[in-house]
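Backbone shape codes:
===
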Amino acid sequence: MISRVMGLLAAFAVTIAWLASPRATEPARDVGPVPPRVMLDASALLATQYRVEPNIVYLTAGKWDGKLDLYLPRHSQGALPAVINFHGGGWVTGDKNEIALDVLPYLAMGFAVVNADYRLARDALAPAAVEDCRCVLRWVIRHAAQYGLDARRLVLTGSSAGAHLALMTALAPPSAGFDRLCPGDEELRVAAVVNFFGVVDVADLLAPQHRRDFALGWLGDRPDREKVARWVSPITYVTDGMPPLAVLTVHGDADPVVPYEQAVRLHQALEHVGAPNRLLTVRGGRHGDFRGDEVLRVTRTVREFLGRQGIIKMPSAAAPSPPSSSSQASAPARL
């Protein structure tokens, strides 16, 4: 019964992943249509096999409550790996509700999912969003036993600003100073990051050739703005002493918002320190403006990458391709 449920959900999830993407501009071309009965059955099973605990407060900062939604199977066999998902929006807009459907492929892969909000620029300037996301990770680790989660198999993900926050949460050491709101003795370590066209170098978005209003809005008008930008840049923390971490990066080489060169720099830096990683380049891809077939292809690539890291078990019919640190392939905006 469990294998049938997961099979139905997998078919349903990859289809919904494409349908839910506001930037999927063409129909999927490399797969046939999902039979209506399969979609109906899988939709019905979602309600009976999974539950949602919404709006759990993980942090209170002044009058702002940080909330997360927790997606869990009603019946599980052992501790589950978990994905923590951060929304995009340039640190100035967006919320977790906008990306609620993004959890479906991860559920089909066997994950529990945490979908979290964080403070936007209107609530607090940088580095508040980074601090909040670090608090989310600490909350998950502290409550792992309560919710049946495996703290050794945590994955962070997001797109654009959300991917930046996923990388910062994973890479920043305690000495970076982002844990003042949520101090603790827990080691904030994750197994992997899935980075969808994330900002790697915030300072680069202040330079004249790449200047972005959303970056200026998040950093604010402060005399040490460039110093703060480097402080909150993931590339700053890719060093020989970084924690063990696998990173999958997806980025279009025609991205007009976050320069593709940032993805290349991250890949090269990770290669230099020997961190397992893979870069999927979308030829002609813009800031998530990818075709539906690419959305489906990247969903499978994510599953294979995480399977190779031992975070999830791969279905026997979908064994991973040979390991490769970098590949040029089509990829999607969102999962």
Summary: Strands lie at 50-61, 64-73, 80-86, 112-116, 149-159, 192-196, 246-252, 277-282. The mean pLDDT is 87. The chain has one domain: 2-318. The longest helix spans residues 2-20.
